[in-house]
């Protein structure tokens, strides 16, 4: 099993958020304090804020940013194999795109703040918060210790799913909830994308000839299993029971 210290490479310590483990974990702690304490207390005796222009800009930014990463990442996908893709520290394009992905996952935290300011407390669920923290942390670990590899394919799949998801969010701002027939299929798409990502990690882990760090594969596998379970519970609660 490869040690994180061995995998570190000084040239990449110049990237934002990669100089110390205290950076991502500090941001995660700050995020948790803001969304569980400061934000709710600030809005406790206030009316929900009307943030439609902000939401439009946020959704548009997410759509274009996720599509941008998918387009930039597409040429390098030819070097990706579901059987085994090793670390790509020598590929500047892969490493820099991986870094952009990490920053985008950090930007995702803003979504929770918008929910809180609009007093959409039900949307600030455990699944929502855990998912945001998990994706950011998993992507950061990949960038810091072993950029590229199966994480690169995961990032492209995640961005493709999120581009479609934010198109739905943008469209839903002007559509009656009853007419949003494709709402549940967004969850199906998320489950499908995460299932493929999980399969990718399983194959890498079981391949005895694959040199990608096993410890990174294991923590990603654990995270993916938990998130798939949570998505399954959400789908059953939101759609299966409501159709009975």
Automatic annotation (TrEMBL):
GO terms for biological process: fatty acid elongation, monounsaturated fatty acid; fatty acid elongation, polyunsaturated fatty acid; fatty acid elongation, saturated fatty acid; sphingolipid biosynthetic process; very long-chain fatty acid biosynthetic process. The keyword Cell inner membrane does not apply. The chain crosses the membrane at residues 15-35, 56-74, 101-117, 124-143, 149-170, 182-203, 215-235. It comes from the Eukaryota. Pfam families: ELO. Keywords: Fatty acid biosynthesis, Fatty acid metabolism, Lipid biosynthesis, Lipid metabolism, Membrane, Transferase, Transmembrane, Transmembrane helix. PANTHER family: ELONGATION OF VERY LONG CHAIN FATTY ACIDS PROTEIN (PTHR11157:SF21), FATTY ACID ACYL TRANSFERASE-RELATED (PTHR11157). This is Elongation of very long chain fatty acids protein. It comes from Zophobas morio.
């Amino acid at each position: 099993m490869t040690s994180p210290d061995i995998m570190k490479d000084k040239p990449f310590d110049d990237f934002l958020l990669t100089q110390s483990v205290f950076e991502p974990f500090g941001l995660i702690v700050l995020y948790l304090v803001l969304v569980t304490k400061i934000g709710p207390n600030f809005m406790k005796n206030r009316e929900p804020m009307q943030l439609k222009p902000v939401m439009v800009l946020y959704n548009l930014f997410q759509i274009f940013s996720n599509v941008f990463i998918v387009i930039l990442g597409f040429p390098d996908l030819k070097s990706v194999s579901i059987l085994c893709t090793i670390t790509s520290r020598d590929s500047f394009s892969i490493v820099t795109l991986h870094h952009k992905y990490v920053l985008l996952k950090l930007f995702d935290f803003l979504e929770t703040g918008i929910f809180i300011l609009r007093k959409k407390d039900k949307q600030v669920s455990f699944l929502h918060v855990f998912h945001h923290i998990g994706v950011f942390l998993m992507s950061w670990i990949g960038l810091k210790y072993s950029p590229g590899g199966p994480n690169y394919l995961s990032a492209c799949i995640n961005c493709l799913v999120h581009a479609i998801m934010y198109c739905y969010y943008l469209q839903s701002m002007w559509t009656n909830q009853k007419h949003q027939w494709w709402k549940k299929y967004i969850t199906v798409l998320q489950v499908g994308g995460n299932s493929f990502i999980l399969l990718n990690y399983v194959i890498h882990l079981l391949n005895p000839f694959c040199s990608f760090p096993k410890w990174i594969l294991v923590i990603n596998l654990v995270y993916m299993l938990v998130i798939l379970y949570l998505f399954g519970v959400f789908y059953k609660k939101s759609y299966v029971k409501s159709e009975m």
